[in-house]
Amino acid sequence: MLFNSYAFIAFLPCVWIIYFLLNHFKWYRTAQFSLIVFSFVFYGYADYRLCYLLAFSILVNFALHLLLMRKDFSRRLRGLWLSVGILANLGLLFYFKYFDFTIMNVNRLLGADFVLKNIALPLGISFYTFQQLSFVTDSYQRATEKVGFLDYALFVSFFPQLVAGPIVLYKEMIPQFTNPENRRINYDNMTSGLEYFIIGFAKKILIADSFARICDAGYANLPELSSLGAVVTILTFTLQIYFDFSGYCDMALGLGRLFNIIIPVNFDSPYKSLTISQFWKRWHMTLSRFLTTYLYIPLGGNRKGMLRTCVNVMIVFTVSGLWHGAAWTYVLWGMMHGIVMVIYRVGRRSIDRLPKWLLWLGTFAFVNIAWVFFRAEYFRQPWRLFDRLVSGGTGGLPGAMTAAFCDNTVWKVTLERFVSAPALAGICQIAVPVWCLAGVMICVVFPSSHELVKRKITKTTWYVWLSILFAWSFLWLSQVSKFIYFNF
Q1: What pLDDT is recorded for position 416?
Q2: Is the pLDDT score of 425 beyond 80?
Q3: Does 480 score more than 70 pLDDT?
Q4: Contact 392, 369 (CB under 8 A)
């Protein structure tokens, strides 16, 4: 089920009312169980078979937790069970996400003809697998307490963060589920939760999806792109993925707060970053934390000299790229970030002395270029786009790109009554680049959603504005689209 759908808008109040009504009558375990059931309904809405896989994963990892917490087991035996847990989780992820990718590359490399299974990727498997890997590892290290099954099942399946993160830790979530104070309605949390949800809702529907339509039109018409068209195509995906992922993260935070659960921040204005190091402290923050804690530090981190540090950085970013998708374009995207991170680490003292505007421009330009490989549908596509960027000439935007934006706006319907078709086409040629610049300004200059919510604005005009924003977004739900990170 998508957050940006009519079904979810009807689903949410039902879940909320039942959960707090059961808590009101002190049926605490029943309330918790109801939230687990509703989370499974949310997850299996499009395909109920997904619930079987999620339930299997929860059962296996909970059993591993119980084994790893046993005091009568030697460290060696517990280490064996940890290895089983790691192999089981990564094996499940490999089968569903990387099996066909591996077979395809074996066929190319060896000239073999192994048959692909065409396995459908279950929603959120990368997220809940990494989340449970962290829990199993923490259980081995005795960094957790022994937890009950319902607490653990809710920790994994809690619907606001199930399918696209953040990747949460035991200590961040389970104590909140068992806190008696969180079983009562908290109006401050309700207010901030609704603020987060409405802001994220609008980011996705009104902003991200508008850039998506322009970007898709650009990629569908690569041979026709001028240099300006190539720039806009690159920039629109940069803005699409920003507002798409930011919108999801805001909605997840808001939904958590509606249930008195504070979900960790996963996105914090990354395009304001002056360096690539800052970028990864602001973009998908919980994935960076997971890879740092469970991969980079065990590999030695920065404790074994600069050369080993650089190798570890490259390994982490290559894994990050592969985590995002089973394609060499994702791997290349991860390696590009790794190389730039290594360059920054080696030359940090000199780089940090550069003017801030130059640091920002260089970081933002690199992120844009790297996103081209992330967005690519096949390996040669980025080079075709870069070719149009260099040799596309001085023409305007293809009609498909302007139509993708202007045909979906109210002002276009109004203007066409008063201006000629050629004049309207000219206005649309200007409107798309202006909209892109406005998107960059929102990312870089405007306060983040976290800053807005923390201000605790109580003016009536603020709530009127939020109401208008929600109503406007709700009217566009007929053009519902999936979140980008649902693909991972």
Answers
A1: 60
A2: no
A3: no
A4: no
Q: Which residues does residue 267 pair with via DSSP β-bridges, in sequence order? A: 283
Helices 125-140 and 75-93, packing angle to 10 deg: 180
Distance CA 201, CA 243 (A): 10
Quote the CA–CA distance of 455 and 468 in Å, as a whole number.
20
Q: Are 174 and 146 in contact (CB under 8 A)?
A: no
| Residues with active-site annotation | 324
Long-range contacts of 324-327 (CB under 8 A, 24+ apart): 324/374, 324/488, 325/487, 325/488, 326/97, 326/98, 326/100, 326/101, 327/101
396-415 pLDDT, tens digit per residue, is 888 888 888 887 665 565 66
CA 449 – CA 99 distance, rounded (Å): 39
Spatial CB neighbours of 20, under 8 Å, sequence gap ≥ 6:
31, 183, 184, 185
- The pTM of the full predicted model, rounded to 2 decimals, is 0.93
Is-contact 241 484, C-beta < 8 A? yes
What is the Cα–Cα distance from 238 to 369, expressed in whole angstroms?
9
Question: Which carries the bigger pLDDT value, residue 288 or residue 121?
Answer: 288
Neighbour count for residue 135 (Cβ, 10 Å): 27
Phi, psi angle pair for 25, to nearest 5°: -90, 10
Q: How far apart are CA 177 and CA 369, in angstroms?
A: 42
Task: For the chain, give the number of residues.
Answer: 488
Phi, psi (degrees; rounded to nearest 5) at 26: 65, 25
